[in-house]
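User: I'm writing a tutorial on reading structure tokens. Could you give me a worked example: one chain, its sequence, then its tokens, then a sentence or two explaining what the tokens reveal?
Assistant: Sure. Here is the example chain.
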Amino acid sequence: MHEAVAATPSEIGDAVAYLRQSAERSWANWHASSSKPKDPFRPDSQNMCGFTASFVSLALPDIVGGKWQVAGGWPQNGGGVISPSGETRAHFWSVSKCGLVVDITGDQFGLPSVIVTTRADNRYRASFCSEFLKMHLPKVIPVAVKWLEELSLTTDRKPTVH
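And here are its predicted structure tokens:
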């Protein structure tokens, strides 16, 4: 696995849109099997950012190259994502070692459903410390791995671009 992302921004956008389609199927299944009812007025991405950022961070190295990890933040400690209304919300997203940010669950806060940007984008403020991520990720990685396995079993798997 290379440090640098071996794809153009357009290729990354295409790959991430493909991952979003796959994630939408997984979200629908998750919400259908959950004991918590989904708010019918919110998108299926509601409360899926931790699982999805993990899924994207696991999938992107094979599709576009580079090293990807989960990032995120809490408003209480200066982090999170800023919605179009200016509200800061707790959130997770994927970030590459070279500073690319990918978010496919921002639509739960009124953002576009697929975002490819950079760390310089002021909407994204990472504040989760490594200790928090080490505690949280083991809870979501098994679900992300399952989603990745489901993706690899589909016949429409997107070819790599690097």
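What the tokens reveal: Residues 6 and 95 are 15 Å apart (CA to CA). Residues 9-153 form one domain.
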